[in-house]
Amino acid sequence: MATTTIPSHASKSSTLRIPLKTFTLEEVAKHNKELDLWVVINSNVYDLSRFALLHPGGKSVLFSPMIAGRDVTTAFFGLHRQDVLERPQYSRLIIGKIHGEKEVVIPRTPGSLSAVPYGEPAWLSEGFTSPYYKDNHRFFQRKMREFADTVLREEALRCEDKGTRISQEVLDKLNETNILAMRLGPGPHLHGKQLMGGAVQPNEFDYFHELILNMEGSRFGTRGFIDGMLGGMVIGLPPVMNHASPELKARIVPEVLQGKKFIALAITEAFAGSDVSGLQTTAVRDGDFWIVNGTKKWITNGTFADYFTVGCKTERGLTTLLIERGQGVETKPIKTAYSSTAGTAYVTFDNVRVPVGNTLGKVDQGLAVILSNFNHERWTIICVCVSAQRVIVEECMKWASQRMIFGKPLSSQPVVRAKLGDMISRVEACQNWLEAVTDQMNHMSHRDVADKLAGQIGLLKQFASKAGRETAEDATQIFGGRALTPSGMGRLIENYHRTSGYDAILGGTEDVLKDLGVRQALKKMPSNVRL
Ligand code: HEM
Asked: What domains appear along the chain, each with residue ranges and CATH number?
């Protein structure tokens, strides 16, 4: 009897060359009853005799004359995601291969690109060019995709499901590659660091590299994990890097960038969200200390943060302070629609004594410190939102092509094609606008970004998150009931439908940002123009 090697999609532990028997379809057909049940999936022969009783989809479906002893590849992929077959407990059910047959479904190998039309942005699609991305960006993207597929994916799925904090083991890998530092964008904090094993030099690193990094980490249908992967640092650390005293900076920044200590931005309150100036947490001077009292709400990474960058009301305005976890600081998890891996918390300050040396920027001028952070935060959310949206388009393209209805693929229905047309148009519009804005960021100073781009970033963010929410609705209609369960075929759709609202709220709500964009434009209207 001929031998072969175990198929490429089998479990990691079985990448060894294990001889497999070959069978004919006629031989398989003889095993078609209870306790003696074989089927063929993707050219591999599975012995389901014992598994049938444990099958999550029930045993009776497996004993149907259309299934038992047959090649069930089409039926199987109509009901399960490919990764079911990759689970070690199921890949062990393989007992052989069909003689002379090849796999018809080839799983995407870690690091590779999707071949599904619109499954990747144009610059990564064969035959397309782009004025924005250089060879180095392409190399960096390959390295990031590999890292995301091999290190982040499993962790993201596990944390999203269990609601646990990202593990120290993965944080150490983020530190080794300096991904945490790169999440803060280009700048002096990257100097002297080896980025992604040397894939990009610190002085070459630009906003397109950061865009790639943000997008590659957002492809698993795990919105909570994206924020759990130290989203609090992305928004909480810049005020320290840009406004803390040299001593404070030297003490705090390195440990946070190494993933050894955690920081959260604590601005929003039950009383004030987008209207930052309405904050009610107070800081009152007492000699060399501030005494801080108040409660912050919806604080990302708050449950596990060691440090908090806090907006406080002071005598003549707002002052931003760095507060360390200690006496008088309490955090309590808030149950939210996304996974508690994000560590969303209430943070209470009860007569907390904060050294005056922990003041970030000038007293009473903390609003400027807080606002200077917003453009980067919003731009980061846009990257995440567009990347996750594209994955949904890819999922729908696949599902519409493989799901059979009345003997034809779902995509044969004009109403489904119309939805796909809307989804593709939205994601392409968002991607192209995002790339245009990113290019401007690469050519502008921080001050110019605040002056010229803040409004546009606000407009783009609300446009992208609205597009994302419409796409979530369309995708839910295309997937039907499967879009309503957090496991199975529609897993990513369910997560996106449940969590796409986060992109619409975090960093500024859609209505506020649209208005900001228009107000910024109106401010610049020349007084001497008329119709
Ligand atoms: C190696 C063979 C198989 C394995 C390991 C397997 C495994 C599973 C698993 C893990 C689920 C739970 C849902 C999920 O995680 O996606 C499931 C559901 C299901 N399976 Fe299978 N299965 C196999 C073969 C088949 C076959 C041949 C059929 C034939 C029709 C079938 C029909 C179903 C059905 C109807 C469901 C419920 C789907 C739903 O709720 O949407 N399975 N199977």
From this structure: 12-98 (3.10.120.10), 134-229 (no CATH), 258-364 (2.40.110.10), 374-523 (1.20.140.10)
